[in-house]
Amino acid sequence: MEDRIERRDQEWRKELRLKTKGRERTAIQRAEMPMMDPLERVHYQDREVNIGLDLNTAGQEATRCMDCVNPECVTGCPVNIDIPSFIKNIERGEILKAAGVLRETSALPAVCGRVCPQEKQCEAHCFYLNKLKKPAVAIGYLERFAADYEREHGVAEVPEIKKNGIKVAVIGSGPSSLSFAGSMIKKGYDVTVFEALHEIGGVLKYGIPEFRLPNNIVNSELENLKKLGVKFEKDFLVGRTSSFEDLKEEGYKGFFVASGAGLPSFMHIPGENFNGIMSSNEYLTRVNLMNAAKDEFDTPVFKGKRVVVVGGGNTAMDSVRTSKRLGADKSMIVYRRSMNEMPARLEEVKHAQDEGIEFNTLTNPVEYFADEKGHVSRVRVQKMELGKADASGRRRPVPIEGSEYDIDTDMVVVAVGVSPNPLVPSVLPNLKVSKRGTIEVNEETMQSSIPELFAGGDIVRGGATVILAMGDGRRAANGMDQYLTEKYGK
Amino acid sequence: MNEIIETGQFSEKVFKIVVSAPRIAKSRKPGHFIVLRTDENGERIPLTIADADVKQGTITLVVQKAGVSTTKLCNMKPGDKIADLVGPLGKATKIKKVGTILACGGGVGIAPLLPIVEGFKKVGNRVISVLAGRSKDLIILEDQIKKWSDEVVVMTDDGSYGHKGVVTVGAEEIIKREEINECIVIGPTVMMKFTALLTKKYNIPTQASLNTVMVDGTGMCGACRVSVGGKTRFTCIDGPEFDAHQVDFDELILRLGGYKEEEKRAYNAYLENQNK
Ligand SMILES: Cc1cc2nc3c(=O)[nH]c(=O)nc-3n(C[C@H](O)[C@H](O)[C@H](O)COP(=O)(O)OP(=O)(O)OC[C@H]3O[C@@H](n4cnc5c(N)ncnc54)[C@H](O)[C@@H]3O)c2cc1C
Ligand code: FES
After folding, report:
1. Is the pTM of the predicted complex or chain greater than 0.90?
2. Within this chain, do residues B125 and B238 fall inside the same structural domain, yes or no?
3. Burial class of residue A165, CB neighbours in 10 A (0-12, 13-18, 19+)
4. Is the ipTM, as predicted for this complex, more than 0.85?
5. Which residue, of A399, A417, A435, is where some domain finishes?
6. Which residues of A touch B273 (CB under 8 A)?
7. Whose CA is nearest to atom 15 of ligand 1?
């Protein structure tokens, strides 16, 4: 906080504010994200849709930012990135410094710039939107720009770290773990990340497709962590391959559990186990992690021609757009609420629409039918209407009696949510978990009911977001550092 | 790690592979399985752990050449490295003293049955094993099973070895002869289905170890889901063993056929490549 105010008072910032008149700033139109043509991009699973701003456009967009005295955007950011400070660095052309500001609070800015729901967070609080009724400053585009620029131009410095030799284990390798590992290694700990799958990155690798988040972005972050000395052990399921007790015997003093919310939910309606019906996790894992769509890889995947995807979140959008890219003639969303309640990022919904995805809202599947071989052929859906708001604040969908009709299909992806991975709680009877199966922690330190065990990300929150998972990782690192310092000294 | 230490062959299509995996060897219990990927382009396939040697730090897999992945694996030699190997996965068999156990194994299912038979015997049960296969050379590990069984009955479809007939014929004779307290069955799904029907008739609690399509093996995808007692369960984390009388085997058989065409295509492409 102090920092942010002091920074705003720096000479260069003052000069920059005076350099361009407010009226000139507000006259600039919000930058448009250059992107691949929808007709072309639907043929490529691994080509990123958004191309990114160029230096010039980024500078212009940064000039729009008014460098407010009380920047509301910062309060809208779940980890309170000093947004004006990084944007003003872009305006004056110090892009690496801008990236440096991002790095103070975010371990993975190139990822967040791409996947954060900015329209609900920072950008929702922007002065432009709320006071001028104009499009918000494109904070997400700028974050992505600075981080990409740093990756392409910066020399990642490897800071001198004084090692303390204390071993800590990180369980899972999603964004929460990566953020935790980065913080802890810089504090001098001996950090090992254990991942059950054969790839490091959690949802960033197996879930989010490359047309939205290319693998090389994640890989370059992993390289940075490796350079700092973080060790990675893949194919290692903590609690099974070795127990927590085994790891303690091997000298691990602290544990950070970020095992995610990987368990897919199904709707438990008749016919859901027919062939051709799968969870979004299965579909995306086959395509993203196993490369099933490519001939030279052994894993098979259905290439449906008339694909129905059930749900309205990011997972649903990723699945339906993947199906289009794998050659579907018709890819359809079936969602029980209306467009307004869709939890997916606005940009993804827009991109999906541009790609010709059909949206059936206020519609819910009730039963599946199959051909003689047991492969899905039809889904019966029911129309819904919105009733009173439920606990989540969204209006509850209510079925309309007698409104059922059938949609022909040859592949269905169920993307109706996930629940916490039960493995770690199941092997640690003393670990306090909620009714939903999430690990209970102290919100400030992320410490669980087992003192040496800290947790964060989706295993604590249920299916949430990358930025929240990362924020947890950082807080847990501070919490664990304090705990271990008290216990073992500096 | 993941290095193949030893290979062997039981029959034309059934191979034994001993892999270095010290942590898994130490942690595994009867009933556990692993998931492996032979190479960077391979798929993730589940295989039950047939045996383990903690001192040597190895686990033993028994594999039947069936599709691309198992063929690749069976063609590997000592010194080769398996790209990825993770485990032990699944829930271990609940082994306790119940009296008399009837252990039915079919084909390669005999391999995962071995540690279970051993476990039940070691806690003091009377163990009767029925081993079944299409013909003589598909009956594997008979001597090892014998070591931990009070009696072994061999059944072959063609009568080339032991008694002629399917597993249920041999099993029913024993059930009629003496009191069986629990049955365990591992083998082809059709065989497990009929064994379950038989033991249900005689009210014998029965566990079946299911073989389903899997991807991750850690509960993340649901590819392995089965209906047990009308509820959807994930074989990789809730199983692989379930109450055989509750399993919807017909659905399971349909689901196993789900990727048949894709698999056949992949296998033919693989063979073609090999012959080039
Ligand atoms: C398809 C999809 C799209 C998404 N899109 C967005 C988006 O656009 N924006 C956004 O903000 N969020 C998005 N999310 C949500 C976001 O990805 C998650 O909130 C975030 O990844 C959670 O991070 P995490 O570190 O808690 O766990 P995860 O990323 O889930 O990683 C957990 C890892 O732990 C491993 N693991 C589990 N148990 C063990 C164990 N016992 N031992 C070793 N390893 C273990 C798992 O294999 C997994 O790799 C999306 C999610 C999905 C599935
Ligand atoms: S194999 Fe993926 S959930 Fe069981």
Report:
1. yes
2. yes
3. exposed
4. yes
5. A417
6. none
7. A465
